[in-house]
Amino acid sequence: MQRPDMSVAVAGIKMRNPVMTASGTFGYGAEFADYLDLESIGAMISKGLSLKPKAGNPTPRIVETPGGMLNAIGLQNVGIDAFIEQKLPYLKNVNTPVIVNLYGNTLEEYGEVAARLDGLSGVAGIEVNISCPNVKQGGIVFGTDPGAAQEVVRLVKKNTSKPMIVKLSPNVTDVVLMAKACADAGADALSLINTLTGMAIDLERRRPVLANVTGGLSGPAIKPVALRMVWQVARAVKLPLIGIGGIMNGRDALEFMLAGATAVQVGTASFLDPSAAQRIAGEMEQYLVDHKIDSVSSLIGALEV
Ligand code: ORO
Question: Where does the record place the catalytic residues (predicted)?
Fold first, then answer.
């Protein structure tokens, strides 16, 4: 048998396989080059970038929890100009699509960051973060209100000709409502889910573990929630979806595709195993070989209910 066709496309971004690296878990790409072949994965997504550099929240800002971890990084990043000058030149020499995750402290800032990236070669698309749970301004403020989300999506759309993915928050009552709002406002694809707001307590010190008190929960603990949300959104919205949430191996990734995702993002797994994204793509391919399936795209939304 020939090797299965692992390629997929999300909003015109062609990928050799469905495995992308989730924002904030893969640095700016180069940091991982010693651990995996950057040309073995589907796409890379940068840490969320803002107009100005940002130091993030005070430490401690990461803690392990049962089946997962909490983070409260606070969107630390080098700023969009430093990314373009210092990080992008390296990435341009890697034959893998680069998607830039971006956010704004204000509505206008979202538009401004998107505008700086427009027309730049080496940027295959953008992912708009309206779902960071760890900052007071920006992020989730726009991701829990359908009207506010639409304002961001419309403004970014006006400022970019690149494919626009919008990253949704699970910290809402009705994720389908948010997905529809973003679709109506012009999103080209949706990624879901960002982390679930949680907290950890140090009993002896009677204090929260994280300096920020709360953080975003990720890892296998959230996979069932993420699968449910991808499945619900897939039934309600026509856009391509990118599934995220506790994907540790190829089987997890394929479950997201059955639920309706065209591609997946690997995040927390890269902290345990920095080569996880490459390994997961290989495991997906092996599943197809073992089950005599010719193309991974035939599994998208193929769940029988
Ligand atoms: N953490 C998350 O869990 N999601 C985000 O979008 C951003 C952060 C962070 O920088 O704290």
Answer: 132
